[in-house]
């Protein structure tokens, strides 16, 4: 699930609770939101929970979207570098495709 979909899902849940007369305080929303993130975001969660100030839910969403964009850029750069390395190996004399070993990250 993308981060934007997750944000929308959590927002929908908290909005539903508010509509039922059970609003969730923002600090609890932040904790609930962070606990529900996938393990790949553990470093992000740690950095947010170790802050001396309590970020707003909107700020957490913004920081998380930025974090997700950085991960996507890094992954696309790694794929491009892999492609370039394989292409360079091919250009250096590996004319038989069976001689090329593709290494993925």
TrEMBL record:
It comes from the Eukaryota. Pfam families: Retrotran_gag_2. This is Uncharacterized protein. It comes from Dipteronia sinensis.
């Amino acid at each position: 699930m993308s981060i934007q979909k997750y944000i929308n899902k959590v927002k929908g849940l908290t909005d539903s609770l508010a509509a039922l007369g059970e609003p969730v305080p923002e600090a609890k929303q932040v904790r609930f939101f962070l606990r529900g993130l996938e393990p790949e975001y553990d470093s992000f969660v740690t950095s947010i929970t170790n802050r001396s100030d309590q970020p707003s839910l909107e700020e957490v969403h913004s920081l998380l979207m930025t974090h997700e964009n950085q991960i996507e850029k890094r992954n696309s750069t790694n794929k491009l570098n892999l492609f370039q390395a394989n292409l360079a190996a091919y250009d250096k004399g590996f004319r038989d495709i069976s001689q090329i070993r593709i290494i993925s990250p």
